[in-house]
Amino acid sequence: MRSTEVLTWKNRCAMYSGFFIDRSDHFNSCEATMKPNIKWEPLLNAAREARKMAYAPYSGFPVGAALIGERGKIYTGCNVENSSYGLTVCAERVALYKAVSEGETQPKAIVVVADTEKSLSLCGACRQVLAEFNTEILVLAANTKGVKTVTTLSQLLPEPFGKKSME
Ligand SMILES: [Zn+2]
User: Ligand 1 mean position to 124 CA, how many Å?
Assistant: First the structure.
């Protein structure tokens, strides 16, 4: 097993601070007790494929995302840049907007893939937009070398602005 296949479950798994994604005994025991059952490989493959569609002529940094919700359908996204840079949209938001536009407002998990040294970190805008629909969505960030990190949005964005913020 290559060291690049290490998957860490940040601060969430009481028993394992780090484990391998293909050690399904560990992974599934965590899945069973701590989070909804997510089949990561189809999501990872979908995100990798979506990355190939990235429109990133300015950054040269293609990103792919794949999201799954309650209905079980996978929605993909890639970053779509614009010559007016501020109009650029990240892959995560494209995937989420596609899901919501098709009636999926209960996202369970999202995978994000990019060619980074470590697994990708989601930008603040995407964290906030995801939090609108599920503050506990599972986030698996991966690079193209196989490094994967699973966490929850509530860990990435502990105090999101939301409906309750306006009460
Ligand atoms: Zn983003």
Answer: 6
- Strands laid side by side in the 107-114 sheet: 19-20, 6-9, 148-152, 138-143, 107-114, 63-69, 74-78
Reported as a single tens digit per residue, the pLDDT across 56-104 is 999 999 999 999 999 999 999 999 999 999 999 999 999 999 999 999 9
Tally of structural domains, the chain = 1
The CA 151 to ligand 1 mean position distance, Å, reads 16
Asked if residue 166 belongs to a domain, the reply is no
Specify the CATH number for the domain of residue 61. Answer: 3.40.140.10
Please say if 49 is a catalytic residue. Answer: no
The rounded Å distance from CA 92 to ligand 1 centre is: 6
pTM reported for the whole predicted model: 0.81
Domain extent for 96? 3-156
